[in-house]
Amino acid sequence: MKALITGANKGIGLAIAKSLGKSGVKILVGARSESRGQETVKKLSSQGIAASFIKIDLNNFDTIHNAAKEINELDLLINNAGIPDSHKTDQPDLDQKKMISDYTTDDLRETLEVNFLGTHEMIKVFLPKLVKNGKIINITIPIQPNDFWHPLAYQTSKAAQNVMTMAYALEFKNMHSEKQIFGIMPGGVATDLNGHTAGALDGYIKSAEEAGEIIAKLALDTENHNGQIVQFDGKIITDYEAQIH
């Protein structure tokens, strides 16, 4: 079994790679930086995990098309990579105190281009590479704003991604395809975006390793998750539209 994971050189992506790799899955480490990607391959290989690097930058479609030329067959495509906001050198990657009125059109455009359009291109290009019962998994988030966390650009891009997930799933169903596409919400996870705050908020924030295990377990189970948005606790989100009211 072979899995391509975007953003696999760190955080949740790396944790997914480790967890799947320990189950015998061959890992394609998708990353923008070749040096970081190759270093990740060395780390995984030292743990007995079969891994290789493949350059993928969601903001550069040429890298996606070139990567597809190197891959003949895939069992799992895990779209994990994404950005929380447009990059600004004088601000944190994810400013949780940023006012909605402070978002610019460029903030929204850049985040949507990477998280939505980049993920769409990944799915479109790699769909023909999937085996008969292959799976596409999009790592996503809840879209309902709350007092603690409501990053407009990030949530908007993931809402669009969730709609795309369900649209592809409907098409798979109508075509009587055995392929699946679904989203997984790992919940609050400690990454470099939030200062690695595992255990914060009375344990609400889990470690990347915990998130990776949850995602790997869902990726490898025998259930039909096509079209579902699955929470970290296994709950299927059935009231998706209600979340926006």
Automatic annotation (TrEMBL):
Keywords linked to the UniProt accession: NADP, Oxidoreductase
SUPFAM superfamilies: NAD(P)-binding Rossmann-fold domains
Tagged with keyword Oxidoreductase: yes
Stored InterPro entries: NAD(P)-bd_dom_sf, SDR_fam
Pfam family, one: adh_short
Coiled coil: none
Membership in a protein family: Belongs to the short-chain dehydrogenases/reductases (SDR) family.
Protein name stated in the entry: NAD(P)-dependent dehydrogenase (Short-subunit alcohol dehydrogenase family)
